[in-house]
Amino acid sequence: MARIVMKFGGTSVADLDRIHNVARHVKREVDAGHDVAVVVSAMSGKTNELVGWVKGMPKATGANSPFFDAREYDAIVASGEQITSGLLAIALQSMGVHARSWQGWQIPIRTDNAHGAARIEEIDGSFLIKRFGEGQVAVVAGFQGLSPDNRISTLGRGGSDTSAVAIAAAVKADRCDIYTDVDGVYTTDPRIEPKARRLSKISFEEMLEMASLGAKVLQVRSVELAMVHGVRTFVRSSFEDPDAPGMCDAINPPGTLICNEDEIVEQQVVTGIAYAKDEAQISLRRLADRPGVSAGIFGPLADAGINVDMIVQNISEDGSRTDMTFTVPSADVGRALAVLETVRDTVGFDAVQHDDGMSKVSVIGIGMRSHAGVAATAFKALAEKAINIRAITTSEIKISILIDGPYTELAVRTLHSVYGLDKH
Ligand code: ADP
Ligand code: ASP
Ligand code: MG
Known about the structure:
Helix content is 32%, strand content 26%. By secondary structure, the chain is of the alpha/beta class. The strands form four sheets. An eight-stranded mixed sheet has the order 3-6-2-1-9-11-12-10, with helices on both faces. Helix 7 (204-212) packs antiparallel against helix 8 (220-229) and helix 9 runs antiparallel to helix 10. The longest helix has 16 residues, at 16-31. The two termini are 36 Å apart. The mean pLDDT is 94. Aspartic acid is lined by residues 9-10, 41-42, 47, 80, 142-143, 157-161.
């Protein structure tokens, strides 16, 4: 008998039929004798609708949060998961499974106070362990928790993955199964490249890079938690027949296992390609080249909660002036420009230019640590397709390249093919 946390994403609970189908997946594991806790997302599209409603409201005077009043934002957008947790509990009860829904605050899932993007700080597993003891399937609303100010908090978009992994760690589950609309983690987004292949295993480090660099199949924080707590996490499909042979295999269920790199026998040089659209490039022209300039720019941007990503600096010929280029999410450009205006006099620069609609494509693989020439291959392949490179950053296991947005799909497919990822 194992202890399993099963998480179902938005498309998996998109309507009543799909919720009934999810209940069959859960019942299968219960019938096999396992202790089961379930985490659900809102029905697909629901959270977007709720966010849209918040954004459609007039902004309170003096409010400077992009979420308006972030506490009310959380009260509203957390509601989607309340509905699906209740509906799934009813569907399970109708099949004779002893089930009950629970909201984040009832467990409680304690978070910090960063409303809209809260981090889980503590889950006392004993609440859910007690439910296992009663033979109950707890259906937990994902994406939400309880903040220190005693209010509902949410964990940032895609946060139900993190709810599930954190619960799995808290109850010391044998497995956390993330059910979604694809049957695992692929070499790249299968919606962009139909030739993408499913990986049977991927290391925590590579999955962390894939998720951070845009592969939204798992929320970044969920991968961090899985890595830190050693949670055995599988990404698998809820769209397969719940009772197909092998679906209930306790050791090797169908899907992709996220695991330590030493569990992966055949390590490739490149494991996957990720992309992130809606990046913007901001360039400061003719900056004074003296100590403290970078701190004078990036400190205030960080204070404003703006996530700066790639940074490139060029020294001018006479060495006295420099150009600084960096990227931020397109949604933050307006705020970033406003912050830069406030430091223009102290930092000293001639002009600010910005360009929206950029994309970042990234090549990821642990094998890059020991193989040279991976970056050169990418640059050559993109050049052959006449794709202009705007900026480059690298780390030990990834290369990220900033390009013009309209070339995203072409760049992803080109890189996917040049490293042989589409070959079986
Ligand atoms: P859920 O609603 O179940 O949380 P998401 O939409 O958040 O599902 O994540 C699943 C989606 O992630 C897939 O439909 C797929 O388009 C996308 N995706 C992006 N990159 C990858 C990848 N490398 N492997 C698998 N799916 C990916
Ligand atoms: N429903 C939330 C969202 O759409 C959380 C999740 O799906 O993981 O972001
Ligand atoms: Mg998701």
